[in-house]
């Protein structure tokens, strides 16, 4: 299959591209810089120069492909509304390029937007992020609606913690940076709120499986560990960085965690039981605790240096 991928040089995207290539697919990857182009070409993909704002470039590349994997996103949390508008425009372009073709469209989504359910989020739960003014431009529901237009659209909801050793610039890396800069591995309140987690290599394999065989209009969860208490995450980081661990009052969350404060206190346990049954996906790579212990987010020696 000829697959067009956005976000291909990123943390998750690079794992997905490696998996796609290993499974015999040809990959064309959007690259916004010389460095990104060099990275995807070194991995074995063909670079398509452009940015997520280059909608015509994206539309043409999608139209020329047998399938699309959309993992790119403008992570500007200082202007999240603009990022959402860009996301929606890109997904709309996919709808125009793929309509009536029965070709697959796999998009990245997340597990926020559900509120407190009192139970793990499951694949059949509908996100509250709906419509063009919603976070991420309501792209999940927009893409899933394409199933009615002859597109095999699939949403992959990634755990907020997509971890690994080397190269992570996401939430977990930011928590480690904050712990280093403040001298304390902190957690909100009593630390019982939970974040699900998945290794980036397991996530990359799920993307490939979703592209190959997930039914139209389906949602799958890239979740290996259903919910790790934030206190436990702080303890793991504290042990790795040789830092004390302690609670952060609600009034101090914004000062301590910055833009991450909106997420760090969320309770987001999530199940992937349906995903595993549907696609035969079984995570096999290291857990979050194992990656932190292996030095994936720094060590005491690094801190001292």
TrEMBL record:
Molecular function GO labels: aldehyde dehydrogenase (NAD+) activity
Domain of life, per lineage: Bacteria
PANTHER family: NAD(P)-BINDING DOMAIN-CONTAINING PROTEIN-RELATED (PTHR48079:SF6), PROTEIN YEEZ (PTHR48079)
CDD domains cross-referenced by the UniProt entry: SDR_a7 (cd05262)
A Gene Ontology cellular-component term: cytoplasm
Gene3D superfamilies associated with the record: NAD(P)-binding Rossmann-like Domain (3.40.50.720)
Occurrences of domain NAD-dependent epimerase/dehydratase (ranges): 3-213
Organism: Protaetiibacter intestinalis
Pfam families per UniProt: Epimerase (PF01370)
InterPro entries named among the record's database cross-references: Epimerase_deHydtase, NAD(P)-bd_dom_sf, NAD(P)-dependent_oxidoreduct
The name this protein goes by in its record: SDR family oxidoreductase
């Amino acid at each position: 299959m000829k697959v067009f991928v956005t976000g291909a040089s990123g943390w998750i995207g690079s794992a997905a591209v490696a998996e796609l290539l290993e499974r015999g697919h040809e990959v064309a990857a959007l690259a916004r810089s010389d460095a990104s182009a060099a990275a995807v070409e070194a991995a074995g993909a063909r670079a398509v120069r452009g940015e997520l704002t280059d909608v015509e470039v994206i539309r043409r590349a999608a139209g020329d492909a047998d399938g699309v994997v959309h993992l790119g996103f403008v992570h500007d949390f200082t202007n999240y509304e603009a990022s959402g508008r860009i996301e929606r425009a890109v997904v709309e372009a996919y709808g125009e390029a793929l309509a009536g073709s029965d070709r697959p469209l796999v998009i990245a989504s997340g597990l926020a937007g559900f509120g407190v359910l009192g139970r793990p989020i499951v694949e059949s739960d509908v996100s509250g992020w709906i419509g063009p003014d919603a976070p991420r431009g309501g792209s999940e529901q927009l893409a899933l609606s394409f199933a009615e237009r002859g597109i095999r659209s699939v949403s992959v909801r990634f755990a907020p913690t997509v971890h690994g050793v080397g190269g992570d610039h996401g939430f977990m890396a930011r928590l480690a940076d904050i712990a280093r800069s403040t001298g304390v591995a902190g957690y909100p309140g009593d630390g019982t709120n939970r974040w699900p987690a998945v290794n980036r290599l397991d996530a990359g394999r799920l993307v490939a499986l979703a592209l190959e065989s997930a039914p139209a209009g389906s949602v799958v969860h890239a979740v290996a560990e259903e919910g790790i208490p934030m206190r436990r995450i702080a303890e793991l980081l504290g042990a790795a960085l040789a830092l004390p661990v302690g609670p952060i009052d609600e009034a101090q969350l914004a000062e301590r965690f910055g833009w991450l404060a909106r997420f760090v206190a969320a309770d987001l346990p999530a199940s992937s039981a349906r995903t595993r049954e549907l696609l035969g996906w079984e995570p096999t790579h290291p857990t979050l605790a194992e990656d932190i212990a292996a030095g994936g987010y720094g060590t005491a020696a690094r801190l001292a240096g």
